[in-house]
Amino acid sequence: MATPGDHPDGTGSRLQASVDALGGLVDAILDPTTERDRERRRIVALCAPFTALLAIAGAYPLAEVFRISVSAEQYRSVGFSLQAYETLVTDPYYRTVAFNSIWLAGGTTLASVGLAIPIAHALEKYDLPGEDVLVTLVSFPISLPGIVAAFMILVLLGNNGLVTNVVAVLTGREPIDLAIAVSAPGLFVAFCYSMIPRATLILRGTYAEVDHAAEEAAQSLGATPWQTFRHVTLPQIRPGITGALILTFRTGLAIFGTLIVIQTVVVWTLQISRELSTGYDIQVAGAMATVYFLFTFAFTALGLRYTDAEVGL
Amino acid sequence: MTATLLVVVAFLMVPVVLTFVGSFASEWSGVVPSGFVTLQNWREVLGLAASIGSQRSMGWDTLFSLGGVTVAVPSELLFSVGLALGGVFINLLVGVPIAYAVARYEFRGDEWVNAISVLPLVPGVILGVAFLRAYPNLSGTSFGLIVGYSLLKAPFMVMAVRSEFESMPLRRLEESARSLGASWPRTFLTVIVPNARSGIVSGAIICWTLAAAEFNFSYIVWAKGTQPLALFLQRHISNSSFTKAAAAVSMFFCIIVAITVLLQQVGSRGFDTRG
Amino acid sequence: MARVTIDSIRKRYGETTAVDGVSLTVDDGEIVGVLGPSGCGKTTTLRAVAGFETPNAGTVAFDDRDVTNVPPENRNVGLVFQEYALFDNMTVRENVAFGLKMRGVGTAERRDRADELLEMLGIGGMAARDPTTLSGGQQQRVGLARALAIEPSVLLLDEPMTGLDAKLKARLRDEVGELLSALDVTGLYVTHDQEEAMLMCDRIAVMNDGRLEQVGTPREVYESPATEFVSEFVSLDAPELPFVQW
């Protein structure tokens, strides 16, 4: 997928031109004469179902959430008040929650993409025996919801966990003291369980487009494998890595099910759910949803606009 | 590089295997589960043996009765299968046309349309809150869940179908068919769509799997009645004995494996949606 | 078949003018080759005749019927592309019969007509095959049969031989050339290969930079080029080969 293009914002005359163009477009769609008009009508028809779904299931509900978040009353959308946002900004609790979200998603993004690079490299560059199987195995967790990822971590690091018990046997300590599944590090690992396969998928796509001839040329000129990677491969995959960082970070921020099972660190999504389940504070939940949406939208748009990121997924 | 790959594959797969093995154990408190082989966990999860409270297993619904033979299926499974199919149906209606628009035509703003259609715009939790607010009476119903799933999973349909379209000589196909006298809608339905069927089928399977496993949105909006599969899993993971939770999760693995095999049958490369 | 009249058509894309006032008449039963370097506007001209581009100015007429704004599906033109563009979801026979089906011709008649055409093109045994299993040359024959099946007012060929190997090209050229004149097809043959144009076409229109440089018989164009460009383009890697037979 390409980055959003350059559409310089217009001045007055440009606006007028746009209005005229729009009028012309409406005419063309309602009563097409040229083939170009008929094509425009087709494009509109093709985009219409998706647009309708987006409007009904996306835009309108989000607008309603925004509306209640700035309402003067708690359960009805009337008047205007920024009280919910004021709470978010002034209450140190929410700052902690925001901070938790950022470091947890950020840290796991770096770890996951960091691991995904060598994995994608190995899968795309080397002729490994059973490569198809490895690809299937690495891709398998993509279809697992967060709750299952959390369970996988319980199986490894919980009280009954394999790693916990092996370490307990080796060190002679009690498993219950060693279990870290329900702790911040355990949560960190659980996030990685969900995010590594996604990051790998994106980077494999990037690797598939690498120009092999250039790499071979570099090696024939005497570059070591590391030099080749550093000077030839890396510049080619860098936009893909940036894109993977953006998308994986989004994934990390959106994780929720994992936190329902491993409730140790309160992050933004979990807090939204808690606002609803304890006291049904739809205003604060709405404000949090709005902040979340604007934040992810802004950094994705800026990320795609101002870096060389390529989003291949 | 290869070592990293193998370690990560082990990290991802060991708990899966252990869970599956553990689901046949009667006890799991040491390093490895013990007390093999029992089917009790599976029977309880699938509702073939009695269970109570928050460990409640699946109910059974009659699928059809024919000449004294009654075929019943677990209701949570049936419910999720149906919801996910509904979501896929909407995904097909909205995803295939827009994928064609982006792959075939150049128009002002096509990059934005592309970006919006393949990027998951809202996470499940946020969409759940938005649904609760905008459609308080509808959000927890099957219809609400289906519409929510369809929006959440639409990008995967668009990606799969778009990459299939991009591998086809779309313009030439369309022009050939039209020069032969087929109207544009007829061209789209009888030539373009059938030629892209493998991408469409794999997109549908991917969307179905993801919708059947959807948790975040379902958790926020679900109110009462039969639970979607992921909520059923979560209930077991949080409340049941470890072995029984393992059986519930293993049942889910079986579904995913079956779907993956199906995907490979239709010629797609698993979840790799790139052309 | 029909007479095709292109009358001073112009086509702009934003700032660039792809076709700038081209007028050309193709008589009933005549094959006119449109020859020129890539980007000269020859394909745009062909697409305007097919109806996939509506010119900004000028008209296209089949016999006396103005078709400038008629959509392609109502024009009755046959199209053959370099990329074949066969429908992979249908058999070879279904491909050829597709246009007849769109015209509401009955199943049995469609089948007979399709088989007849395939026979004529020397691939009668392939009717039940999946088109993806055919060779390039065979696929191109299917493409031609499919376009001819609708008995088009005009047959438009867009670089149909490009991409085939030289030997096959020579054979196909002879066969197709004979077939087209036997069927009395009105045709517009777009190519950048002058040898192909000279062998297959009754007249040649040389285009450059969106304009027509010269229209004439192959001999006229070769022996008395009207402009510097024609003389350079036609004599470029001057093949004497095609003129031996004269």
TrEMBL record, chain A:
One of its GO terms (biological process) is transmembrane transport. PROSITE patterns: ABC_TM1. It is found in: Cell membrane. Keywords: Cell membrane, Membrane, Transmembrane, Transmembrane helix, Transport. The chain crosses the membrane at residues 43-63, 102-121, 133-158, 178-196, 244-270, 282-304. InterPro entries: MetI-like, MetI-like_sf. Residues 98-303 form the ABC transmembrane type-1 domain. It is a multi-pass membrane protein. GO terms for cellular component: plasma membrane. Belongs to the binding-protein-dependent transport system permease family. CysTW subfamily. PANTHER family: INNER MEMBRANE ABC TRANSPORTER PERMEASE PROTEIN YDCU-RELATED, INNER MEMBRANE ABC TRANSPORTER PERMEASE PROTEIN YDCU-RELATED-RELATED. This is Molybdate/tungstate transport system permease protein WtpB.
TrEMBL record, chain B:
GO terms for biological process: transmembrane transport. It is found in: Cell inner membrane; Cell membrane. Keywords: Cell inner membrane, Cell membrane, Membrane, Transmembrane, Transmembrane helix, Transport. The keyword Transmembrane helix applies. Residues 77-263 form the ABC transmembrane type-1 domain. The keyword Membrane applies. InterPro entries: MetI-like (IPR000515), MetI-like_sf (IPR035906). It is a multi-pass membrane protein. The chain crosses the membrane at residues 77-100, 112-135, 141-161, 200-222, 242-263. Pfam families: BPD_transp_1 (PF00528). One of its GO terms (cellular component) is plasma membrane. Gene3D superfamilies: MetI-like (1.10.3720.10). Its main location: membrane. Belongs to the binding-protein-dependent transport system permease family. This is Molybdate/tungstate transport system permease protein WtpB. It comes from Halolamina pelagica.
TrEMBL record, chain C:
It is an enzyme of class 7 (translocase). Keywords: ATP-binding, Cell membrane, Hydrolase, Ion transport, Iron, Iron transport, Membrane, Molybdenum, Nucleotide-binding, Transport. Its EC number is 7.3.2.6. Its main location: membrane. Pfam families: ABC_tran. Residues 4-234 form the ABC transporter domain. One of its GO terms (cellular component) is plasma membrane. The keyword Translocase does not apply. It is found in: Cell membrane. It is a peripheral membrane protein. SUPFAM superfamilies: P-loop containing nucleoside triphosphate hydrolases. It catalyses: tungstate(in) + ATP + H2O = tungstate(out) + ADP + phosphate + H(+). One of its GO terms (molecular function) is ATP binding. PROSITE patterns: ABC_TRANSPORTER_1, ABC_TRANSPORTER_2. The complex is composed of two ATP-binding proteins (WtpC), two transmembrane proteins (WtpB) and a solute-binding protein (WtpA). Part of the ABC transporter complex WtpABC involved in molybdate/tungstate import. Responsible for energy coupling to the transport system. Belongs to the ABC transporter superfamily. Sulfate/tungstate importer (TC 3.A.1.6) family. This is Molybdate/tungstate import ATP-binding protein WtpC. It comes from Halolamina pelagica. The gene is malK_3.
